[in-house]
């Protein structure tokens, strides 16, 4: 088990999280796009909101796709639409 897998397992246990473990590659891809196209400080907040959305039932791949599109088009789109 590598450090990331071990860390994820320990966090899940400490927070009493069950269910499917997260896909680190998907989360890191979202973080990379936000950092690149928006701003570095938006990254942890976005990942927190990503987790909330997934926790409320949005499939992780759908949440990632939505956030990736938003980030890649930032600020050329009107976020209120």
Describe this structure in words.
This protein has 81 residues and is mainly α. Helices cover 65% and strands 0% of the residues. The chain contains four helices and no strands. The termini are far apart. The mean pLDDT is 92.
Features:
81 residues; mainly alpha; 65% helix
Q: Could you list the spans in which at least 5 consecutive residues all have pLDDT below 50? A: none
The profile of the biggest β sheet is: none
Radius of gyration: 14 Å
Q: Give me the count of strands.
A: 0
Please indicate the count of domains.
1
| Class by SSE composition | mainly alpha
Number of helices: 4
Strand content: under 5%
* Global geometry: globular
**Helical proportion?**
55-70%
Order of helices and strands: HHHH
What order do the helices and strands come in, and which of them pair?
Layout: H1 3-14, H2 24-37, H3 42-55, H4 60-72
Précis, in short:
The chain is an all-alpha fold and 81 residues long.
């Amino acid at each position: 088990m590598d450090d990331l897998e071990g860390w994820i397992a320990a966090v899940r246990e400490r927070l009493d999280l069950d269910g499917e473990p997260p896909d680190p590659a998907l989360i890191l891809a979202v973080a990379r796009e936000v950092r690149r196209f928006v701003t570095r400080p938006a990254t942890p907040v976005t990942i927190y909101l990503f987790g909330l959305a997934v926790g409320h039932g949005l499939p992780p791949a759908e949440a990632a796709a939505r956030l990736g599109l938003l980030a890649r088009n930032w600020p050329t789109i009107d976020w209120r639409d």
